[in-house]
Structure formats: C-alpha cells, structure tokens
Specification:
This protein is an alpha+beta fold. Helices cover about 30% and strands about 25% of the residues. It is built from four helices and seven strands; from the N terminus they run ααββααβββββ. It is an enzyme of class 6 (ligase).
C-alpha cells in the first residue's frame, strides 16, 4: 500500500485499502448525489480557502484527484456509484480525503 502512495498509483488500491492508508487524515463527508464543478468540489473539501488560490494551484499543475492531474477548474466531477472515497493531492505531500 505504501508503494502505491509513494509511486502515485492510488488508483490501484481499493477504497478499503485507501481508508487504511489515510486513516489518520482529516476527512470531509459530501453527498455523492450533488453535482460538482471541480473548483467547487475542491473548495468544499477544504483544499484551499478561496477559488482564486485553487485556480492558481490548478494552473501550476499542483492538484490531483484520484491520481488524475486537474487542468480545468470548471470541469464537472463525476463520482462512481460504488466509490466510497476520493483522494485529493495538493503539491507533493498534502492529501485530502472526501468520503461519499
């Protein structure tokens, strides 16, 4: 599991394994039935304090959602029905967990 974390291969872990790896991280609970634009999702997940900061981070290539680098802050976020959590990475070492 640690290899997947350090090699940026989180998509190879199951949701249960991700819960174990990120057990000590703060989690935010959101409603999967709600429709999100990426920037609004990141704001609700408390990745940054403002949309301006989030746009800058996205422009710098510093945001990943489930190992997918985010390039468009206005993109629509799609959550699978069986998905229990989403892992957000800001920079190299900052992780945020969203539980659905």
């Amino acid at each position: 599991m640690n290899k997947a974390l350090f090699d940026n291969q989180l998509d190879q872990l199951s949701d249960q394994e991700k819960l174990v790896v990120f057990a000590s991280f703060d989690k935010v609970e959101l409603d999967r039935n709600q429709s999100f634009m990426v920037i609004d999702f990141l704001l609700q997940a408390k990745v940054a304090d403002s949309k301006r900061i989030l746009r800058e981070l996205i422009a710098q290539g510093s945001i990943q959602i489930d190992d997918l680098k985010i390039t468009d802050p206005q993109a629509q976020l799609n959550v699978r029905k069986d998905q229990q959590l989403t892992v957000i990475k800001k920079g190299k070492k900052n992780y945020f967990i969203v539980v659905w």
